[in-house]
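User: Okay, second chain of the day. Same drill as before: sequence in, structure tokens out.
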Amino acid sequence: MISGFADEISPDLDKQLQVVKGLGMKYISLRSADKKGIADYTPEEFERELLPRLNEAQVKISSMGSPIGKISVDSQEEFEKQKHQLEEICKMCRASGCGFIRMFSFYIPEGKNPDDYRETVISRLKEFVAIAEKYEVVLIHENEKDIYGDIGRRCKIIFDEIRSPYLKAAFDFANFVQCKEDTKVCWDMLREHVAYIHIKDAVYTDNENVLCGTGDGKIEEILKEAICEEGYEGFLTLEPHLVLFDSLASLETEAAENIIKENKAKDGAEGYGMQYRALVDILDRIGARR
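Assistant: Same drill. Structure tokens below.
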């Protein structure tokens, strides 16, 4: 099932819903709406301001695109704050029927060895997982650049250490490329843990994001194996990063211009549509249902 981070279309939720419906999509990953990140909504605000519009549009939420774990591993204060935010987001999942919350494994201080933080990371992730388990929501760990689990080997450590049905992998092709990882090697290492896939591509030469299937992510090869040979039936979530959309600066650790050197579409809606059609072409070529 195709979903996507619809805030790349527009900061306005109504515009997001208009575009995804026009493409025939029935799901979005809700990262931000009306210029406000999902973690900044209370469950009451979510049910009052966002959920009725989603229901009216008949668009469901594939995942909550939360910033949980997107903090310094050294910040106890931010960690305590995020535990409360995670509880609140879990309540939003319960209200909307969403089963997944995207999250991360903490930024490592510049110049430090991520492996030195293994015990702290695992301990804190276990606390997040315990919260998710109470609500029967699955945390999906994204391999974001500059966090502990940014490369395949450390992602595997996380899943080996925390054997829980409430912690799975959100496999992001572009992020692995931007960490100079071979995505096929990472897929082979993590495939048993993958419950969610982000459709985003990049190139090794300068880390720039490109249209899916045109970069070094090996998206078509891996999707063919995952869907046609292994029976993957989870979400394929568009995260184009083809246009400098409003909230990008707050979502990336490096300057936005380093990963999007120039807009590849006239606006977010066009870039989102380009990514959707490129993915559909890939699925058609490999003979996958959609």
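The CA atoms of residues 243 and 263 lie 5 Å apart.

User: Thanks, on to the next one.
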